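On to our target:
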Amino acid sequence: MAGAVKSYRMRASTIVPASVIGAKADRSVAPGERIALPQVYGDHLVSERLAIEVQASSKDAGENLSDDDLRDAVIDALMDLKPEEGGDGVPNLGVVREAVVEAGHMSKSQAKKRITADLRDEAWAELQE
């Protein structure tokens, strides 16, 4: 792989060409799976809404996420929750924040600052459509 490499988390099943990852064969990547990709290719997948860039685990991770990327991260977290974590209705805000942090999108302090009940409710409503 040439150029800058970043970590991405797939939102949908994707086949990454061998030439992109420097492998002998194409690689099938499942939703939720993380993969290191050249930034140019990874950013293309993000623009097509097939992947989300995984932020570094630092104190400020997630600070620079756009509002759209933050909403997408919350939607992904909601989709990944097991039924026992989400309950029958809208999942607890703390559970959603924790899921976003565990997925590597942002630090715990950033999740507490940026993920509000309104954002969670908006993402939940989008999933119910």
Summary: The mean pLDDT is 82. The chain has two domains: 5-53, 67-128.
